[in-house]
Every structure is written in structure tokens, then in C-alpha cells.
Amino acid sequence: MTFLDAIRSALDALRLHKLRSALTMLGIIIGVAAVIAMVAVGGGAREQVVAQIRSLGANLLVVIPGNVTQSGVRLGSGAAPTLTEDDAIAIGREVPTVQVVAPFMRGSGQIIAGGANWASPVYGIDQGWFEAREWEVARGRPFEPDEIARGAQVALLGETVAQNLFGSVDPVGENIRIRNVPLRVVGVMARKGQSAIGQDQDDVVFVPLNAARQRVLGRNFANARSIGAIYVKVREGESLSSTEEDVKALLRQRHRLQPGQDDDFSIRNLAEIAATREASARTLAWLLAAVAGVSLAVGGIGIMNIMLVSVTERTREIGLRVAVGARRRDIRRQFLFEAAGLAGIGGIVGVVAGVVAAYFIAKAAGWPLLVQTSTIVLAVAFSGLVGVFFGWYPALRASRLDPIEALRHT
Amino acid sequence: MALIELKNLARHYRLGGETVRALNDVSLGIDAGEFVAVMGPSGSGKSTFMNVVGCLDRPTAGSYRLDGTAVAELSSDALADLRNRKIGFVFQEFNLLQRLDALGNAELPMIYAGLERSERRARASRALARVGLADRLHHRPTELSGGQQQRVAIARALVNEPKVLLADEPTGALDTRTSLELMALIQELNRDGTTIVVVTHEPDVARFAARLVRFRDGRVVSDARQKPANAADELAAMPVEAAA
Question: Are B243 and B175 in contact (CB under 8 A)?
């Protein structure tokens, strides 16, 4: 019996009991569909996280001031005004693996332009910001060095703020006020989209660091040079963790911390955050694989069950086939192909169902749809294997029937 | 040398602790071109005889040679091959596969002979034409009468041009007229050179054979030549309204 004949014969047999075949396939279909959908959705979600982290800027460390205890009251991380602009300058100058530093401070305010007003985060930044965050000015121009040095009353608007305050009018050259400080808009930033935690990064106003500190945000800092945080961009190809160590050592020295004394700052590594997310995604993937394995096993047992029924029902057919010259392996192959056909077709239908489901989930969640050919091939191949595995015993049983008994079977 | 040659053949099997001697010391030769009827009451060993001759069963003792091949020593694959090439089976209940049409059923033995699909189709069509079903190639068993179904089974038995056609109660499920038609066909096949062994308990079937072998208690009790009745003549003499 040739391969092709065996396949044709298997499909004939499956067609004979359409409902039964379909129901038997259902277990495999659900298992495979779940795997395809989950892998696609999980992959899409991860892709999005990676894209968001990248949108923050690659190879970035964030240095923030440490927490502080004031008369027994512990204030949160970043509350201590321990970081200064000089720290930032020192990092940029003394750690060779650093490409650029971007000290900044963050506050918020009501932004007024003519009759319109809008509440937004306000960032005081310096020249380093644009390079560290890989964020360009779309219209107008960035801050001039002397504007940053003297804390000029100029501003750059995020796209969302520009839209809300000026609509279709070009805001470049217009005036705005934040906390009664008049500022001239010199440019609009390129659109950046959502951050990793879902914030609209375009809902922002940038002013020179000195202007923010002395005029706009007017926070009462202990040190006139203090800042909110520092972005440290590490050179391409250099190790983030060793740079982190260097920065840490430098800051401990500058802050005159004794060995054993806690850091008065902390450093966050965005790659670490990404790695954590990767790890949790991997855990999820293993979980999915386990679920898929269980559902495929259940589907396989269903196939085994129905194949045993089929062998019993077709005892006479088996007897006849043996009588007209089928060898044991011909009979075995016939039933094995039927089982593999059930599982394989179930796998293919499952892939289609899974892709459709993934498409709708991705669409609803706004994620990119990520269906890899390798996943599909693997799913179909694996389900076929499940069929062969669970079809083996019924096929063996069929091939071992005594033809004389089988022909007498009613 | 005879086509079918049994020498001191025995077939015993154990059933619930007791040894059943289904065949005992059977020696028999059947030449190519013969038409032999094997008769006997149930339990006489005629079914076991048929299974052994059909290479579905192996003898316990003695020897069986089919067309010169000693069957007792063959592996199960070699037996399958022997059945495929040298034996055509016809059963009482036809044993057609319901999901296949006449052509598909007649094709079956050739699938295991490893023939090409086009070759199989052509030969199955020829065999079906020979049994008078040229216009029923694509009918399924449920769309055929009992006589037609048995003709499909005969076509299936013939496609690999076997040395011997083994029929087990071939008319057992058919009415009188259809039985006559079938026996006429079998006689015609025999005239064309096919060796035929029919196992039956009906004298009405056995009388069309040229040789009658009777079994009782696992032994051959008589083996005689006879002048066979002509089924085609009887059919012609039969009143038309008797057709069911």
C-alpha cells in the first residue's frame, strides 16, 4: 500500500463519520488555537513593551535622589534633594562609557495660551535631553545653549499640548504662561506616543532647567543647583551594569558617603526593567506551553478512544483487507494515518481559529498581530505527532486481529 | 503437480482447555482448472479447510503446498502476499466496504499489490464488466441488489488474476434465481480456466461442481467426480415471473 493510497483511504474513512471526526478533532482544535492565539497575543504584547522601552531611549540609566528620613517620617524615593547639576556634569566628564547626561526636573502646571488652558507635566531640561531620550524637535528649534545657560523664558511643547492649546494654529512664536511666567514657544516636539506604563508622553512642556528651577516650578530646593533626576545614556556597545557601578562609585565619592553608609540616590537600569518583563513573559510562555500540552494530551486521548471504537466497528473490514492481501503493517499504517489525519486536520483548523482569535484580540487591545510561521508549523507538526502517538495503540490492535475471527465478527 | 496439495494435514486448536481437532489427516489434491465443491455439516471442518487453503490459517501438522509453495513455513507477510496474488475470496456476506463504490471495492486487492491507480481502475473496470456490472461502476453497495453485490465481490476476487477462487457459501444470502445467476457466472469463470473451490452445505450449490468432496469430523469421507448441472440452462428454463 503506497503512502498516497493510505492517505486517501484515511480521508475516506474520516469523511464517513463527519460529525464524529469533527468532535474528535475539537480537543486538538481548541488546544492548538489557544496556543496560536496566546503566542501571538503574548508576542504582540511583548513587542509593544519592547517598543515602549525603546521609545524612552536605548541604553539609559536613570539616577534619582534617594529617600530621606525627616524626624522619623520617611519620605519616598526621590524626595531628597541630594542630586545636583554638578553631579550630572561630573558623571558626563568622569565616566568614559557615558555618551551624554541629561539632568532634569519635573513638575506640573496649568498652561495658558490666549483663551485656552491645559494642565500638563512641565520638565526642566538641558541640552543633553534630546540626545539621551532620542527625541527630536518636529517644528521650530531646540533650545539654544545660551537659553539653557541663562534660563531663558522659552518653551517646547509636546504634540498633545500643542493640539489642545493651539489646535491647527502653528504654536511656534506664540506666547504661553505657566504659573504666571510668560514663555515663548520655540518649537514642538516630535510625537512619541505612549510610555511603557501607558502615559501619553506627548502631554508635556519643556523649559530650560534653570528657568524651571528659578521661575516656573519655583521649588524651594535646599541647594540652588539641585535637580530632580539624571538620565545617563551609555555609549553603544558598552556595558550598562559596569557603567552603573562607575556612576555609583563616583556619586558616593562626591556625596562623601562612608563605606557601610546607604546610598542617598538610586540608579535604575531600563534594560533591567526590560529583562524583568522578558522573564515574566517567558514564565507566561511556559505556562501556556503547559496548558497547550494538557489540552493536546486530552485531545490525543479523545483520538485514541475514537480510534479504538473505530477498530472494533471495522473488525470485518480489517478481516477482509487481510484476506485480500493486506500485511500487518498495511493495517497499522491505515489506522495510524487516520489518527494522524484527525490530529493534523484538527491542528490546521486550530491554527486558522487561533489566528482569527489573535487578530481580534490584538485589534481590541491595540497590539501588533504577531503570528510566526515557525509557531504554525510547530503546532501542526506537534498535533500530527500527538495523533501518531495516541493512534499507535489502536493501530497496533487492529493489525494484530486474527483475520478468521475478524471475518466472522458481526 | 497439483495446484492445491494437502498431505496428512491436521489443524488442531485449543478451546477452553480442550483440543479441537478441526482437521485430521487430510490428504487432497486439486488441479488447476477444477471446480470442486466442499460439503459437510457444521463442525465437519470444511471452514477450517477453507481457511487453511486460503492461507488465513496455518496447519498444525502435515503439509500444504499452494502452486508449489510450502505454506506452513511462511511468515505472516509472505502469507499476505500469497493471498494477494494467488487467492480470490468470496464470502457469504459479500464483505464489501460500504463507503466505496463498486470500482473502489474491486480495486482493493490491487492496492496491496502496489499497482498504480490508473492501472487499478482499468483492471477493476474490466473485472466488473466481466461479471456483468459495466454499468454499475460508481454504485455503492447500498445501491446494489444482493446478487450485484456478490458480483462485485467476485470481481474483487478476480482482479489480481488468482490461481484459485475460494467461495464460502457464496449464495447463502441470495434468493433462488439470483443464486442460479451467480452459479452460472462461476461456471463460466471456471470454463474460462479459473480454478474454483466452493464451500457449502447446500446440495443445490454443490451439484454445479465437477467434483464433490465431503467432510465429516475433520476428515474427508468421500471424494468423487460428478457430471455438473448447467446453471445457465436451468436459468433459461426458469419461468420469468419467478424472478424476485
Answer: no
